[in-house]
Design brief:
alpha+beta, 5-stranded antiparallel beta sheet, 51% helix
């Protein structure tokens, strides 16, 4: 063997020894070396890539044709992806020479960690599984939880992302949806009813008011034609006849204030065109004849008292 071959062989021996350097001496009867760590990292990255590809294939080729609801598809895909990743990780560790019994050590350590301070993480994890399987909320739903209102954009095992009307993403722990009251505006379908108050003067004809307001609502492209909009006569108030405009919409679930504003603008214009008076607070003051100032009343009381003495 020549000198150059000796040098090359020595180099490869050093490389081999480097990769076989033990990081942990014994895990389930097998040393954990640098080469094992590199293999696990590469295998897990490949696993995540395959899981994403399988999830994309399942959505585009299978689910999109059979399940029209986007939120339901997202829940199924999330569960499928986590199952693939879990089974893949088990397979990767087995191929690296670790037996399934090795995970008992990890489970024991995780149990101790949960007992000492990971309760919230475990609670959110379990809550995430409940949300994915029971689906009280799903991606695309309009919800209210606590003081947060917005659209669900992502559900993971630990938290859920909610996008508000101000284009702000709020990350909410999954346990909030299990422990607190949640209002889901689109649980059954993306169609909700809103009620907007409308007031007119007492001198106006309620039937004419109803005709104008209903016509305005029907002309708005964000108001559903079925169920048809209605105008309820709500009350005889101090200064006005009060009505409630009742409309159904599927477009303005996220921004009911916009729908209300647009309708009010048009109602104001139509009232002005038709001469319908919009009321303002009024008070009638009645004065009695022979009103005596309070000072005169006190003078009379003082005089009467002096006469008694």
């Amino acid at each position: 063997m020549g000198e150059s071959e000796v040098v090359i062989q020595s180099f490869w021996d050093k490389v081999k020894n480097f990769f076989q350097t033990e990081i942990i001496a014994d895990i389930g009867g097998k040393p954990f070396t640098i080469l094992t760590g590199i293999y696990l990292i590469c295998a897990i990255f490949l696993l995540l890539y395959i899981a994403n590809k399988l999830t994309h294939f399942l959505e585009k080729r299978v689910l999109v044709k059979r399940i029209p609801d986007h939120g339901t598809r997202a829940s199924i895909l999330t569960i499928f992806k986590y199952i693939v990743i879990f089974l893949g990780i088990m397979l990767v560790f087995q191929s690296a020479g670790f037996s399934l019994g090795t995970f008992s050590y990890l489970a024991g350590a995780l149990g101790v960690g949960i007992g000492f301070g990971l309760q919230n993480i475990a609670q959110n994890f379990i809550s995430g599984l409940l949300i994915l399987f029971e689906r009280p909320i799903k991606i695309g739903d309009r919800i209210e939880v606590g003081n947060v209102t917005g659209d669900v954009t992502e559900i993971s095992l630990r938290s859920t992302k909610i996008l508000t009307n101000d284009n702000i993403n709020i990350i909410v722990p999954n346990s909030e949806f299990i422990n607190n009251k949640v209002i889901n505006w689109s649980y059954n379908e993306r169609r909700v009813r809103f009620k907007f108050p409308v007031g007119v003067s007492y001198k106006e004809n309620p039937n004419k008011v109803r005709e104008i307001v209903i016509d305005v609502a029907n002309q708005h492209d964000g108001v559903l034609k079925y169920p048809a909009p209605q105008l309820w006569f709500d009350e005889y108030a101090d200064s006005s006849l009060n009505f409630l405009l009742v409309v159904w919409t599927s477009r303005h679930i996220q921004n009911p204030a916009v729908l209300k504003s647009e309708l009010y603008y048009r109602i104001f214009e139509r009232f002005d065109e038709e001469g319908i008076e919009i009321p303002f607070p009024q008070r009638d003051l009645n004065f009695r004849d022979g009103f005596e100032p309070i000072s005169k009343y006190f003078n009379k009381q003082t005089k009467f008292k002096n006469e008694e003495e």
